[in-house]
Amino acid sequence: MQLIKFTVGTNPMPFVGVIKDDTVIPVGSGHRCLTEILHARDRVDRIEKRIASAGDGYAVSAVRRLAPLDDQEVWGAGVTYERSKVARELESTQAATFYDRVYRASRPELFFKATPSRVVGTGKAIRVRRDTRWCVPEPELALVLSPELELIGFTIGNDVSARDIEGENPLYLPQAKVYDACCALGPAITLASAMPAREAIGIRLEIERGGAVIFGGETSIARMARGFDELIDWLGRDNIFPAGVVLLTGTGIVPPDDFSLAAGDVVRITINGIGLLENPVIQGE
Ligand code: DO4
Ligand code: MG
């Protein structure tokens, strides 16, 4: 089962809907509509009852998708794939050994990534900071967690990051990672029960510039060095998330070192079982 948050026509009210073939069946509305359904223990029964009493629904093409979150914070895990460890070692002149150590340590790298206002949904622009010359998309599987840290579902995340800023000094990490439109989430939440097995989840990244694909890469969750439960356990240590939380699980795809995102690019991330997250890129607007 897949849920989306959306608006329709000129009505600014957000709805939550279930996708059935090419139709979206609305199953709730309001600014906390997603949370209200996701956090119910009997969420699937509730959704099925609402589907049974709903009308015809909307064509998928007629709705505008929003990022699938309400008040949730977004956190990130870093250096969970060897490819990320190697990229970080290369970009960092003075702190390269930190990355090898964190890749092997019991305690993972976890960082605060975004408040909901800094997150965009599919179709909306992600941002390259004005003061970076080396910015990349980071395509990541995102875990959608309840306040009790139950793994409710999955979505796609883009942890847009300034590699020159994080590479200059690890203390600059929050500036490399957290700013307006620094994160994209979407296009839908796939409930955990409907997701393919971990070993079968593939991630694909494609970057388009001037109508041509200038970078394509792929990886598999099987290459992730840490388990979901392990990351969730560390995230929950002396931390409570009354609104639930979204956790990005790290990138395993890094474009070549001479590549930087530019205004006008389009970033496409596909994860099987979830769909396609597509965002144009802006800078300085
Ligand atoms: O400290 C670097 C963060 C790395 C990261 O975001 C990732 O591996 O996805
Ligand atoms: Mg990342």
Q: Are there runs of 5+ residues with pLDDT below 50, and where?
A: none
Tell me the span between the first and last alpha carbons: 37 Å
Radius of gyration: 18 Å
What's the order of the H and E elements? EEEHHEEEHHEEEEEEEHHEEEHEEE
Shape descriptor = globular
Number of helices: 7
Quickly describe the structure.
With 285 residues, the protein is α+β, with helices and mostly antiparallel strands. The chain has seven helices and 19 strands.
Account of the 3D structure:
With 285 residues, the protein is α+β, with helices and mostly antiparallel strands. The protein has helices spanning 33-38, 43-53, 82-91, 96-104, 163-168, 173-177, 228-235; strands at residues 2-8, 11-20, 23-29, 58-59, 63-66, 73-78, 109-114, 119-120, 126-128, 135-136, 139-145, 151-159, 161-162, 183-191, 202-209, 212-220, 245-248, 266-271, 275-283. The strands form three sheets. Strands 1, 2, 3, 4, 5, 6, 7, 8, 11, 12, 14 and 17 form a twelve-stranded mixed beta sheet that branches. Strand 2 and strand 3 form a beta hairpin. The model has no long low-confidence stretch (mean pLDDT 96). Bound molecules: 2,5-dioxopentanoic acid (DO4) and magnesium ion.
